[in-house]
Design a protein that fits this description.
Largest sheet: 7 strands, mixed
Helix content: 25-40%
Distance between the termini: 57 Å
Order of helices and strands: EEHHEHEEEHHEHHEEHHEHH
Radius of gyration: 20 Å
Shape: globular
Length: 310
């Protein structure tokens, strides 16, 4: 366990898993700078794990994404007294530094998370179909127009031999209390061995969603706390499927962050790889800071006369 940033007064930390030197370096280069800006503004710590939390020889070993469920108990082993609440964040997430504090309205008897199905700012079926259509049209014509990306909740849970639930959690970001939930998350980890069947080839989303929904402990967060870049891109910036020009990609990522708090660039296709861009250079930090100041400024709407464009 490595601590990047310690809070001055709070007991809230962002935590992540980044295993492998290249992956760790990419995280530090591309997304961590936005986390540091955000955490300094909101007095939040940052901690990460760069080694697997269970041996590959263990029958319960699973892909590193599952190891996030063991973070709480690992931190408790260190007996660090000033850590009470954890916000787990995937490494491929950008944070708008001027976003609200994700811990501000958190209830520590709940696990706060974002739905990947409900309360989205666009029609889910339509935006998924756009992803499929654009991938086939502009990336690989072998991509099927009808596949599991379009399946419904019943299909998702049934595929994993789980009782269907009424929602699906976005597992890239969620908040929990160290004392109340560490052992519960660890318990969920050890319910499955390395032969677990999942929709996304060893992924955690369906099983995590099932247990959290069944527990009744979920506190719903605004979509803006985990905006899905794959949806944002297909809905607002479909032209990016035709080009991989980095300058344009960066401008679109920044534009999406202006309207959201946390932006998750998940997945192994082109959309998911776009997190490997440097967004917050000095000029962009100044721009976001000035925008935030203006949005908070009280205005009068006073008439200034006719202003023409040169």
């Amino acid at each position: 366990m490595k601590i990047v940033l310690k809070p001055k007064k709070s007991s809230n930390y962002i935590a992540t898993i980044c295993i492998g030197k290249k992956y760790e370096n990419d995280w530090k280069k591309f997304t961590l700078p936005s986390w540091i800006e955000y955490c300094k503004k909101n007095d939040i710590g940052i901690v990460y794990f760069n080694k697997e939390l269970i041996s590959k020889n263990d029958p319960y070993w699973k892909k590193p994404v599952w190891h996030q469920l063991l973070i709480g108990t690992e931190i408790k082993k260190k007996n660090i007294k000033n850590i009470k609440n954890i916000c787990y964040v995937d490494t491929d997430v950008f944070i708008n530094p001027w976003s609200p504090n994700i811990f501000r309205d958190y209830k520590n008897n709940k696990i706060a998370a974002v739905s990947s199905i409900k309360n989205l700012p666009f029609n889910l079926d339509e935006v998924r179909k756009k992803v499929v259509f654009f991938r086939k049209k502009f990336i690989d014509d072998r991509y099927p127009l009808d596949s599991s990306i379009l399946c419904d909740l019943k299909q998702v849970y049934s595929y994993c031999n789980l009782k269907p639930q009424k929602d699906l959690i976005s597992t890239g970001i969620y908040v929990y209390n160290l004392r109340n939930h560490s052992e519960l998350l660890k318990k969920w980890f050890y319910l499955y061995d390395k032969n677990i069947k999942s929709v996304t080839s060893g992924g955690i989303q369906t099983h995590f969603s099932y247990h959290l929904m069944e527990s009744g402990k979920v506190q719903w967060l605004n979509y803006k706390f985990q905006a899905h870049w794959i949806y944002e891109m297909s809905h607002h910036y479909p032209f990016l499927y035709k080009t991989r020009e980095n300058k344009l990609v960066i401008e679109c990522l920044l534009a999406s962050l202006m309207n959201n708090y946390f932006l998750h660039c998940a997945g192994s296709w082109n959309e998911g790889r776009m997190w490997k861009n440097i967004l917050f250079q000095k000029k962009n930090i100044i721009f976001f800071e000035n925008l935030d100041k203006y949005l908070r400024k009280k205005v009068t709407g006073k008439f200034r006369g006719y202003i023409s464009q040169n």
